[in-house]
Amino acid sequence: MTFFPYRNGRLHIEDVSLDELAARVGTPFFCYSAAAMESAYTSFVRALGDLPATVCYALKANSNQAVIRTFAQLGAGADVVSEGELRRALAAGVPASKVVFAGVGKQPSEMATALDAGILQFNVESLPELEALSRIAQEKGVRAPVALRINPDVDALTHAKISTGKAENKFGIDIPSLRGFLDSAAQLPGVRIEGLAVHIGSQITDVNPYRMAFERLVALFTELRDAGWPLERLDMGGGLGIAYEGDAAPDIARYAEIVRETTKGLDAKLIFEPGRFLTGNAGLLVTRTVYVKHGTARRFAIVDAAMNDLIRPTLYDAWHDILPVAQFAAGADREPYDIVGPICESSDIFAEQRELPPVAADDLLAICSSGAYGAVMSSSYNSRPPAPEILVRGNDYAVIRPRIDYDELIGQDRLPDWLDDGQQSSEPRGAA
Ligand code: LLP
User: Which terminus in the chain has less CB density within 10 A, N or C?
Assistant: First the structure.
């Protein structure tokens, strides 16, 4: 089933035409299909079956309140990595008892806020972090629930920039150091070690590396329990990939089978932290072609979205499918285009030599799989207001983040006294 059908020759998201959305908010914009998100969530939960699992949606993939609440209403918790994400999760209605706080660099003030909220667990990655948490919890007269994140030294077979489970990565506690770590942890009065956690990377499409990571995690869990540590939970992390090119979708059933096999007979609650899997293929970035430029070597479609809106192709050489909003015949003639944005960097490129039916100025294009790590990684580089976001449900839609106007964008700056001659204005100087 597609959530992005062509109807009457034009691309839709669920039952809403992209032309209508473009007319409403202008381009570029992100739009998300609620049905696609719900379907991804349901398939994840169904695959896990009767495993004792809590799904904590990784907010970093897409932290719009409307998206978080969509998952919260389906029963999801949240995986947060900052006080900002914690506040978003709580504001969107995720119960604190289903919030996991991960990340290598939690600050004391962030820990204090999370302790006050009463979250489920802190995933701790170093001794200094554990000591800080213990100190703050003690000041508050509580004990912080902790899962220790292990670095299993497993290659997730994904892009180097989003691989996190190798010994040379900054993440997790090395297995050989764990014993000594626990001896120190036993002395800390403000923490209670309740679980272990692992996360080996993101956009994992070959699920085999999970097996080794989970086996190592479970072996440690059993060993520590046998040694008297009252462990209750295993956090299996996130990272399950999506198909960006129409193929190579990870086998979710095999993933669940690996979980089932590696945790068999273990009396432990499981936590999962999927992000991209739940939102990635639910979103489009819709952009309008500004000019088509014929260079000597290349044909460029210059569009009004840019690397500030979706940085994945620039940062990770990521492939995103690009669909013309005007329907085209399967056998239509195609020509190679470089789809580029207006930003003054050669790296501002969405696709190179992409075979598309002829593109003309004003044509709308949809950049697919933009629901995860799209809007959240956007910026206002080149003083471009970040693209707005729309959530679609059936034939209904809502703008869930409006485009900010130039006054708001520029008005965030402040002139110091020595430059302020009282003439700061959002109007260009010299304007009447
Ligand atoms: N849990 C932890 C501890 C993580 O570090 C991450 C992602 C997740 C869960 C969720 O991973 P997911 O299920 O979404 O793969 N900006 C990059 C992805 C960075 C992922 C960082 N950590 C991209 O656009 O590909």
Answer: C
Closest CA to 68 of 375, 408, 385: 375
Among 12-16, 159-163, 294-298, the least confident range = 159-163
Does 269 map to a domain? yes
Q: Is 397 in the pocket of ligand 1 (CB under 6 A)?
A: no
Question: Does 344 participate in catalysis according to the annotation?
Answer: yes
Nearest CA to 204 out of 258, 151, 152, 243 is that of 243
**Pair (269, 364) in one structural domain:** no
Residues 6+ apart with CB under 8 A from 20: none
Q: Which two tokens stand for residue 57?
A: 């949606």
Domain that holds residue 292: 6-31+280-411
Task: Calculate how far, in angstroms, residue 331's C-alpha sits from the geometric centre of ligand 1.
Answer: 37
Same-domain status, 338 and 270: no
> What CA–CA distance (Å, rounded) separates 135 from 189?
8
Here the CATH number for the domain that contains residue 375 is 2.40.37.10
Residue owning tokens 């956009």: 203
Report the distance separating Cα 409 and Cα 11, nearest Å. Answer: 32
204 in contact with ligand 1, CB cutoff 6 A: no
CA of 58 to the centre of ligand 1 (A): 7
Is 172 near ligand 1, meaning CB less than 6 Å away? no
193-244 pLDDT, tens digit each? 999 999 999 999 999 999 999 999 999 999 999 999 999 999 999 999 999 9
Which ligand 1 atom sits nearest the alpha carbon of residue 275? 14
Q: Which residues pair with 101 in a beta bridge?
A: 80, 122
Residue from 237, 305, 307, 315 nearest 276 by CA: 237
CB 337 within 8 A of CB 359: yes
Report the pLDDT value the prediction gives residue 162, as an integer from 0 to 100: 74
- Token pair in block for residue 162: 């989003």
If you measure from the C-alpha of residue 371 to the centroid of ligand 1, how many angstroms do you get, rounded to a whole number? 13
